[in-house]
Design goal:
single chain; 244 residues; mainly beta; eleven-stranded antiparallel beta sheet; globular
Length: 244
């Protein structure tokens, strides 16, 4: 569950979203720079357009602004930015594979919907309510069609991760993201000159669409033992009352 009315800077009229496990994204933009030594660096930004509970479908959140190429109007927005690094190799048949080894990701809450792909701003000017690291992943791209897929492993715990305890009812430990990649998108990419301040001349632009499936931090064994012990004591108390 996520209580966005308790997020930093919230006005109190945003939304309280019931149980969900997936953030679904609108079409976002990535920029990837490949280096001569076989390494790569990349940057990505997008917005959340849906909350999903696996096997149950999407959750209606009318206050969430999902206006498309730029945010405007009323409600609140959730935006995502990421930077990453890794390695790549060219395979037979016109395929390029890549592995991601490190990176950072953040999800931002903002009461003023203002993200703008063309202006390259408004994606990280809100309050970070979920931050973490990219711990692995990879994928491939067909150089002929300009399409591909990408999978990421994410960690939202530890010294480099955090989920806002005022927003999320349970701490988020990690997640797995899956994206489709389109280097030849003719709708969004023509209006893009930069991503997170990095000019498109540095690498290749791609339209990227996908989602993050979240995993909660498991309760430590001591908590389960305490809960079981408490339940046992309550049971004993009830039996004593019944026999008195």
């Amino acid at each position: 569950m996520a209580d966005y009315t308790a997020a930093p800077g919230a006005a109190g009229d945003e939304a309280v979203v019931g149980q969900f496990d997936t953030y679904d994204f609108g079409l976002g933009v990535g920029l990837v720079k490949v280096n001569n030594d076989g390494t790569l660096n990349g940057y990505f930004q997008t917005y959340v357009n849906d909350h999903i509970l696996t096997n149950s479908g999407g959750i209606n959140v009318p206050q969430l602004n999902v206006s498309g190429a730029s945010g405007s109007g009323s409600g609140f927005e959730l935006t995502v930015v990421a930077s990453f690094s890794g390695t790549y190799s060219v395979l037979p048949g016109g395929l390029q594979s890549f592995s991601l080894t490190a990176g950072n990701v953040g999800l931002y809450f903002d009461t003023t919907p203002d993200f703008n792909f063309g202006a390259d701003n408004g994606f990280n000017d809100g309050s970070a309510i979920l931050t973490g690291t990219i711990t692995g992943g990879g994928g491939f791209i067909s150089l002929a069609s300009g399409t591909g897929i990408e999978q990421l492993d994410l960690n939202f715990s530890g010294i480099f991760g955090n989920s806002d305890a005022n927003v999320y009812s349970q701490a988020i430990g990690g997640g797995s993201a899956l994206f489709s990649i389109d280097l030849k998108n003719s709708t969004l990419l023509p209006g893009i000159d930069s991503v997170l301040g990095h000019n498109k001349s540095e690498g290749a632009l791609a339209a990227v669409d996908g989602s993050i499936n979240l995993t909660a931090v498991p309760l430590p064994p001591a908590v389960w033992m305490f809960g079981a012990g408490l339940a046992g004591l309550l049971g004993v108390g009830q039996r004593k009352k019944a026999s008195a």
